[in-house]
Specification:
The chain is an alpha/beta fold. 33% of the residues lie in helices and 18% in strands. Strands 3-2-1-4-5-6-7 form a seven-stranded parallel sheet, with helices on one face.
């Protein structure tokens, strides 16, 4: 994978999480409370880094995870480095939080959201919560921009290396909000 071609996967994950947390702190500078939603893959791994960095910056963070990262994965390393307590996603309670970081699923999602992930994203959308998406809003195809099941609109989407077609193709374009492409150390030659 490109993620592992030139720098270690965990280094790229740490860089990705830093880019997202920097965007959250810049764009939501008065936010004192954040909810982070993590999936079991690399997108969730980015989320664990975001949660840790926001907590270190003095933001009150609640972290909800959909399952466990695969043993030995970069996401598992990121989770082990995150001191924020992890709650199961089925206990998601938005309460009075300032911003939601959607790190459930990224551009590689190949099937519609279902179960607790679908219910959570539906709740974020219905409540109109301010959301920052990692890579793409969960439920948006990175290849086509199609919504797979459901997706909550993001005010900002932070992606890495280069834009995906789903950032520009509707309805994904409408759901991504402001798009930031962060350099996390992947060479342009890839």
């Amino acid at each position: 994978s490109i993620r592992n071609a030139y720098a270690s996967g965990i280094t790229l994950m740490r860089n990705a999480g830093a880019a997202v947390s920097d965007c959250v702190l810049a764009g939501f500078g008065d936010a004192r409370r954040a909810l982070v939603l993590c999936g079991p893959g690399n997108n969730g791994g980015d989320g664990y880094v975001v949660a840790q960095r926001l907590a270190q910056a003095g933001v009150a963070v609640r972290l909800f995870a959909l399952g466990e990262p695969r043993p030995g994965s970069d996401a598992e390393i990121a989770r082990s480095e995150c001191a924020v307590p992890v709650l199961p996603l089925d206990r998601f309670d938005p309460g009075r939080y300032d911003v939601v970081i959607d790190a459930l699923f990224g551009a590689g999602l190949t099937r519609p959201l279902d179960g607790v992930a679908l219910a959570t994203i539906r709740r974020v959308r219905e409540l109109g919560l301010d959301c920052v998406a990692v890579d793409v809003p969960s439920g948006v195809s990175g290849d086509t921009g199609a919504v797979m099941g459901e997706a909550a609109p993001a005010l900002e989407t932070v992606s890495f290396f280069r834009p995906k077609p789903g950032h520009y193709l509707y309805p994904g374009r409408r759901l991504c909000g402001r798009l930031t492409i962060a350099d996390i150390g992947i060479p342009v030659a890839c």
